[in-house]
Amino acid sequence: MDIKWRKYSHSMTAKILAFIIAILCFSGVITLFINIVFQYKTDLDIAFEESYYLGNNYINDSSNIIQNLTAITGKYKSEEHILNGGSLSEDELVAKENRLFEDYRDNSKNYNPNLTTSENYDLFKKNYADRIAKQRDSLINEDLNEYRRTLQKLGQYQGLQYYAQSGNNTFTNIPNPAKEYFSSFPSYMIFDGSEQKVFPEEIRENSHFYWITSNIEEFGQQDLIYIAFSEEFINPRMAEWQENKIYVANSLYQMVGLSTVLIGAFLYLLFVIGRKPEDIEGVYLNSSVDRIYNDVNLGMCLGLITFWIIIVGNFKIYPLIFPITLLIASFGLILVLSLIKHIKNRTFLKHTLTYAILYRLFAFVQDVYNSGNVAVKVVLLVIGYPIIVTLTFFMFPVILGIAAWLALKKAKAFNAIKEGVKKVKEGDIHHTIDLPGNSELSRLASDINSITDGLNKAVQNEIKSERLKSELITNVSHDIRTPLTSIITYIDLLKIENDPAKTAEYIDVIDQKAQRLKILTEDLFAAAKATSGNIPVNLDKIDIVSLLNQGLGEFDDKIRERGLEFKFSHPQDKIFIKADGKLLWRAIENLLLNIYKYALTNSRVYIDIIDGSGMELIIKNISAYELNISADELMERFVRGDESRSSQGSGLGLSIAKSLIEAQNGTFHIEIDGDLFKVVIRMPMHD
Prior knowledge:
Among the domains are: 2-41 and 239-344, no CATH class; 46-229, no CATH class; 535-684, Histidine kinase-like ATPase, C-terminal domain (Heat Shock Protein 90). The chain starts with a helix and ends with a strand. It has helices at 2-9, 12-39, 56-76, 79-83, 90-107, 117-127, 129-155, 179-182, 210-216, 231-272, 294-315, 321-344, 353-371, 373-391, 396-425, 440-496, 500-532, 544-554, 556-562, 581-598, 631-635, 653-663; strands at 160-166, 169-172, 187-192, 195-199, 224-229, 540-543, 565-569, 576-579, 604-611, 614-622, 667-673, 676-684. It contains 22 helices and twelve strands. By secondary structure, it is of the alpha+beta class. Helix 13 (353-371) packs across helix 14 (373-391), helix 16 runs antiparallel to helix 17 and helix 20 (581-598) runs antiparallel to helix 22.
């Protein structure tokens, strides 16, 4: 059944059909959107507007009218006022005059450095009076033209009634400016000082009503604006709004349907592209498009998008949007599907022109590097020296002397290295070859010095290893001898004891010491087995959160006994890692036992899981004993945090946990800060 399904779903016919459907749906969505926004000059919000008064069109018209009225009554007032310069901003005039003076001072030869700035400014005004006057006239003409354009805009609103007053200036197109007259219209706005009255009242519920009130806030207490909209103004706009609302709503339904089909077709293409019915694995790259470098492909996609924007934006050929989009999108989808095939084939980066150039350059440099710097220098010397001698034959003695000096210098460096190697060979591992510079011989001397440093470290490590072996023998002897001595002592007492009660007591003590001895030997065996690498590891998918919750549940009685409060935080309910469940539990069990034995009573223990490229488990607690040893020493076998060794631990728990974690391809290390004991475990995530 699966093979038959693949035969049809992965066939070329199905892919072509899905391609055509995706292109048609995409072109349809884009065409509908362009028609709404650009051809009909509306927006998608109109489909969700409940009435004309709650829409953007009503607010836009009202806001523009109020802005024009405030400009006329406030700034311009009348043509006479403008021609007399009353509409000009004094700050703007001063700024333009100052800029003109700066040009005069910087470029004019008439500027006299012997005069003060004020005197030069008066001279400038005298010499440039005509230019200043022309500048003023230009600003007046700009305001006059803007005033006339504002009047023309207001005159284009058929059915608009208005009355505006600012100070002594009034502007109206009706004979009766009474409020009652404006209140008789189907819609009106009255702003008289602090009084604001609008009709219908639902206008106040418009989300953009603040556009109007923000303009009114600049009014003085004596300023007022009345505007009213007659049926001649309202009815055609309301009819246009209703028509646009129906058109946009229907277009949105079509866009949602087309988008759904588009997403389905595109996801299908993502799944089947590059696959053949008979091939379960692998990606099929064979078309000429697949041979195009991916970065070039991306550039072509951006070029197609830019070309489409230029065609649609500049020429505004709305009837041809669908065929143009269909044609450009077809080429674009072919390029995108080629990129997807390379992503599935994991060749997206490798199949780029940038990668090809860098790879060839790197290969060339690597070839030169592999040949060795000495070889390159020798080749250059063999080729270059005869050329230099030929070109400077008239200075042959000088060139020969320089060559002899360089040869002698290199010979001395070689002898210094030879003597240094001899001393190191004879046992002087602290000897350092002093050969400054960055030549081949200097780097060779540095490498030899590094070898001596390595030998010195090896000797120090060997000394440390011998010391640790001695301490290990002492600790093992002490920890095993103590219970063993107790067992022998109590056996001797049993031989002479006749009291049954005493006999039972001695047997209990012998049993406790025997169990202690058993635990020590088992831990020692586990540590040896974990360190040897012979322990079998079966990596599987493990939920670390569930494992820790289970572990805390099993240790609940001991946790309560010590009064410990655990704070467990994790980013997700389930975090899967690649680990061996038994070995991981043994390591975590050792850490919990370590906390139970050595954590400060009635303190908090923090367990944090960090989920990133890998899993990081952090466990922190306060030690009951003073941690006056280093983290490295605490990791050694038979080393415990209490120097008196009065606790019941074997000192093997951390060492075993570290070996078990590393056997599962993880890392384990501890940190000590005062009495704060911190364990950090990193494990790989499960794919």
